[in-house]
């Protein structure tokens, strides 16, 4: 595999995990809303580093994957939260 495909695969796999961990962090600790993306970014980097036993990619690819997944998880959560079930206005 090449690095871009490994990076995208890892991002895809750990983004839902980061969504859950970010939600746990928001429920347990009072976090200002403007710092939630930063918290998700840090959680993403930590999850990327913790993915060592599950992947053979280099450390910097795991860190980048975690950072991208952390920021993507914030957007994924916001899109899911704003949905009201209607397709047309």
Largest sheet: none
Number of strands: 0
Considering DSSP H and I runs of 4 or more, what fraction of the residues is helical?
over 70%
List the total number of helices. Answer: 3
Write down the overall geometry.
globular
What is the CA-atom radius of gyration, in angstroms? 14 Å
What proportion strand?
under 5%
Query: Segments where pLDDT lies below 50 for 5+ residues?
Result: none
H/E element order: HHH
Mean residue pLDDT? 83
Q: What is the SS-derived class?
A: mainly alpha
State the distance separating the first and last CA atoms.
44 Å
Structural features, described:
The structure is a single chain. This protein has 89 residues and is mainly alpha-helical. Helix content is 73%, strand content 0%. The chain contains three helices and no strands. It has helices at 3-28, 36-50, 59-82. Helix 1 packs across helix 2 and helix 2 (36-50) packs across helix 3. It is globular, with a radius of gyration of 14 Å. The N and C termini lie far apart (44 Å).
